[in-house]
């Protein structure tokens, strides 16, 4: 199931800093762009942060940070759908994560 948000359709997401065609997490620029577009369609405005585990600094990932109105159940359902959509497009990818902040 695809989600659209008419308020943001047509917006061009800001590019993530890249080294060649990959960023420092090792994700292709095209993957980041498509994942960001998916996240923005499902949730609205989204930012991306590079995160890492301080105990294992070589473990890096991109966190897509967004927010959403709705009940806890609705938010969890949308988060789960985001994860399914990511896995459908890039099976086994572990370097894309989502953080949804509920709007009050």
Supply Rg.
14 Å
Indicate the percent of residues in helices.
25-40%
Category by helix and strand content:
alpha+beta
- Beta strands, count: 3
CATH topology: Alpha-Beta Plaits
Average pLDDT reading? 82
Uncertain runs are: 1-19
Assign an overall shape: globular
Order of helices and strands: HEEHE
Distance between the termini: 26 Å
CATH class: Alpha Beta
Question: For the report, how would you describe the main beta sheet?
Answer: 3 strands, mixed
What is the overall number of helices? 2
CATH architecture: 2-Layer Sandwich
Strand content: 25-35%
Q: Domain count, please report it.
A: 1
Strand numbers in spatial order across the main sheet = 1-2-3
What does this structure look like?
It is built from two helices and three strands; from the N terminus they run H-E-E-H-E. The protein has 104 residues and is α+β, with helices and mostly antiparallel strands. The chain has a single domain (29-102), classed as 2-Layer Sandwich (Alpha-Beta Plaits). Strands 1-2-3 form a three-stranded mixed beta sheet. Helix 1 (29-43) packs antiparallel against helix 2. It is globular, with a radius of gyration of 14 Å. The two termini are 26 Å apart.
């Amino acid at each position: 199931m695809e989600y659209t948000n008419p308020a943001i359709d047509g917006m061009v997401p800001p590019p993530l800093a890249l080294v060649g065609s990959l960023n420092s997490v090792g994700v292709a620029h095209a993957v980041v762009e498509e994942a960001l577009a998916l996240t923005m369609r499902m949730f609205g405005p989204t930012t991306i942060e590079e995160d890492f585990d301080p105990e294992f600094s070589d473990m890096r990932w991109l966190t897509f940070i967004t927010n959403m109105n709705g009940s806890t159940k609705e938010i969890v359902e949308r988060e789960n759908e985001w994860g399914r959509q990511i896995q459908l497009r890039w099976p086994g990818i572990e370097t894309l994560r989502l953080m949804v902040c509920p709007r009050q």
